[in-house]
């Protein structure tokens, strides 16, 4: 019997938190979800720690899009869920996704909460959720889910080093608007805390603007780094 949901987690040097991330998914696995972890060349203990907690652990060329596509190719389920290694799903995520798909959606995402000390992270999350609901564009932090047939129809994730989630959303939006679930995933605020909240906000808005104006993802990835 095929699993109802296939969860794909791309990882790279996530030894510090991967056990907690995968253990949080154990109840979903117990209810029939399959879990595929795809490593992009970790140089720490990520692989050793993740292997016992996943149905499959794959190796793929480094790059989130490439890793997620490799994981999607290995999934047996008819529904794919792409989860960042520093993001936690709500406990009933599988039921919420099934309900959205039964209601007619082909794809969707969750609202997001950003875990961290700066108070501005709550504002950032609220703006992300509102913008996503308005535009029909999802980010990887929001745990995108999609019917496998539709994912294949749009050509999977584009092979690019940045904005792969934005581009996938644009392709999926041409088929239909996403189910914007109000249940929240919780993602780490480490990116904002490391770079600075305001600096990261300005940087991401600039990169998005440049992407919409047609600049290449490769050039934007250099700017991001």
Please give a quick description of this structure.
The protein has eleven helices and eight strands. It is an alpha/beta fold.
Overall pLDDT score: 94
What is the assigned CATH homologous superfamily? Spore Coat Polysaccharide Biosynthesis Protein SpsA, Chain A
Q: What are the secondary-structure elements, in order, as H or E?
A: EHHEHEHEEHEHEHHEHHH
The amount of beta strand, in percent, is 15-25%
Computed CA radius of gyration, to the nearest angstrom: 16 Å
How many E-type strands?
8
Question: What can you see in these coordinates?
Answer:
It is a single chain. The chain has 225 residues and is α/β, with parallel strands linked by helices. The chain has one domain: Spore Coat Polysaccharide Biosynthesis Protein SpsA, Chain A (Alpha-Beta Complex). The chain has eleven helices and eight strands. The chain has an eight-stranded mixed beta sheet with strand order 3-2-1-4-7-6-8-5. Helix 3 links the parallel strand 2 and strand 3. Helix 10 runs antiparallel to helix 11 (217-224).
Secondary-structure topology with pairs:
Blueprint: E1 6-11, H1 18-23, H2 26-30, E2 34-39, H3 46-50, E3 56-59, H4 64-74, E4 79-82, E5 87-88, H5 93-102, E6 107-115, H6 120-135, E7 145-147, H7 148-153, H8 164-173, E8 179-188, H9 190-195, H10 197-212, H11 217-224
Parallel strand pairs: 1-2, 1-4, 2-3, 6-8
Antiparallel strand pairs: 4-7, 5-8, 6-7
Helix pairs in contact: 10-11
């Amino acid at each position: 019997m095929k699993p109802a949901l296939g969860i794909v987690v791309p990882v790279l040097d996530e030894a510090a938190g991967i056990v907690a991330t995968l253990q949080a998914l154990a109840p979903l696995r117990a209810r029939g979800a399959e879990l595929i972890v795809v490593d992009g060349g970790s140089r720490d203990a990520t692989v050793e720690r993740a292997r016992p907690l996943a149905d499959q652990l794959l190796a793929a060329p480094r790059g989130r899009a490439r890793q997620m596509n490799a994981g999607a190719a290995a999934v047996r389920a008819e529904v794919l869920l792409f989860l960042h290694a520093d993001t936690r799903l709500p406990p009933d995520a599988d039921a919420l996704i099934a309900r959205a798909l039964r209601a007619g959606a082909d794809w969707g995402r969750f609202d997001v909460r950003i875990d961290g000390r700066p108070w501005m992270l709550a504002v950032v999350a609220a703006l992300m959720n509102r913008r996503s609901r308005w535009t029909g564009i999802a980010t990887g932090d929001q745990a995108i889910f999609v019917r496998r047939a539709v994912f294949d129809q749009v050509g999977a994730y584009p092979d690019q080093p940045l904005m792969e989630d934005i581009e996938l959303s644009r392709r999926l939006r041409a088929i239909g608007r996403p189910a914007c679930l109000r249940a929240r995933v919780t993602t780490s605020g480490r990116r904002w805390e490391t770079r600075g909240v305001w600096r990261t906000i300005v940087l991401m808005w600039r990169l998005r603007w440049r992407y919409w104006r047609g600049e290449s993802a490769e050039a934007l990835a250099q700017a991001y780094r």
